[in-house]
Amino acid sequence: MWDRQHLFIGGAWVAPSTDRQIEMISPHSEEPIGQVAAASVADVDRAVAAARQAFDEGPWPRTDPAERVEAIRRLAARYGKRGDELAALICAELGAPISFARRAQVALPGMMMTAFADIAAGYPWQEKRPGVYGQDVILRREPVGVVAAVVPWNMPQFLTVTKVIPALLAGCAVILKPAPESSLDALFFADLVEEIGLPAGVLNVVPADRDVSAYLVGHPGIDKVSFTGSSGAGRQVAAACAAQLTKVSLELGGKSAAIALADADPAAVALAVRLSGMGMAGQICNSLTRVVVPASRIDDHADALAATLSAIRVGDPADPATQMGPLVARRQQERVRGYIDTGIREGARLVTGGTALPDGVDRGWYVRPTVFSDVDNAMTIAQEEIFGPVVVVIPYHDENEAVRIANDSEYGLAGSVFTADVERGLAVAAQVRTGTFGVNQGYAMDPAAPFGGVKASGYGRELGREGIESYLDVKSISVAAP
């Protein structure tokens, strides 16, 4: 049992202002595994005040960027030493298979920290530009201020690192608001920050429910909100930020299409679909969930997907042999089962999976990997983000129709094309309206490449140099000629 009864505010572990608790439930056993203190609006006020003092009066924004880089390198080293503990915690709280937790939920964020530090070490924080009128212009890149980082439960450490680390490198002070389901790992992250000795108030961690989160993003003491979540919640966050003229970046939902051209290998496409999200039971925003295939080869692709996904070993996430665990909560299981029932009702052909529990599983919030074929792109299961292990196969008759189907979505986060002709694949990539794209793979989350979406998938970018720049303001200083 994990028992965390304090919040991390102003560089110290402090008692919350109320006795409200967040109960942590195992998605596998459906039994309690711990409890966490829930922040109230009064606690958010304390966190904002601590962050404001750290930014307005403290040393962190005024340190040489090289010192901030060195601090993040110390954090990355500490993170790596305690990676096994963190992976076990994430496995327990989220139902992520332990092998996936070690690789994607912990090792990848650790690598991202080092990558961000390397980018910041070579970043031009100040540069001189010749002016048109014969005078020099100096450009200073300065921290945007106090940042509210709102992180969901599906990839909590990855998303924490992609928000908090660039903001800290930029010189900002941060308030991290994790999802209730992933509060334990957020507090573990605060432990590590405390151990390396960042100045008080530079990072504050306040687990809380949705109402308190809404209060945070609308707080007048916040200069920038970085939010990852559903498109519906993103619209509410954008409206709250607009009222205060608060800067905001949004990484929202997706319904990404994998376009298989006529020469694509169905087995390779199926493997890429599996790798894009099944390790977290399909609860990944950029999963390839629509597979758009030539009508003449629809059975080849449906059969390959069924064979690949039905072979996934589903079960106890603590077992190193498990490849897919449960969904994060009962509500999520019910949501996904509802979409499966809708797909059958609307006439899609169920190839494998369905609503029954996997073999050998008698409890937990599990859903079997599910494949639908003969899907029309207008169907609910092709248009709405299911956020579970459900893949739909959609036929097309020519390449133009394939691109049209891929673009016929309110989302635009990611996508892929599969073909033996890379140049042809790049031509298709140029026509699909998304923020990220892969050729012969699911989108690779390369630390050097900016990640984000268009349309209802949000705006702003994380990762790469752009990930740091999203936490900077540019000040132009004109210097009169002698």
TrEMBL record:
Keywords: Oxidoreductase
InterPro entries assigned: Ald_DH/histidinol_DH, Ald_DH_C, Ald_DH_CS_GLU, Ald_DH_N, Aldehyde_DH_dom
Statement: the UniProt record of this protein carries the keyword Oxidoreductase: yes
Protein's name in the database: Acyl-CoA reductase
GO MF annotations, alphabetized: oxidoreductase activity, acting on the aldehyde or oxo group of donors, NAD or NADP as acceptor
Residues in coiled coil: none
Pfam families on file: Aldedh
Catalytic residues as annotated in Swiss-Prot or TrEMBL: E251
Record-annotated Aldehyde dehydrogenase domain positions: 13-477
Record-linked PROSITE patterns: ALDEHYDE_DEHYDR_GLU
Organism name: Parafrankia irregularis
Homology family: Belongs to the aldehyde dehydrogenase family.
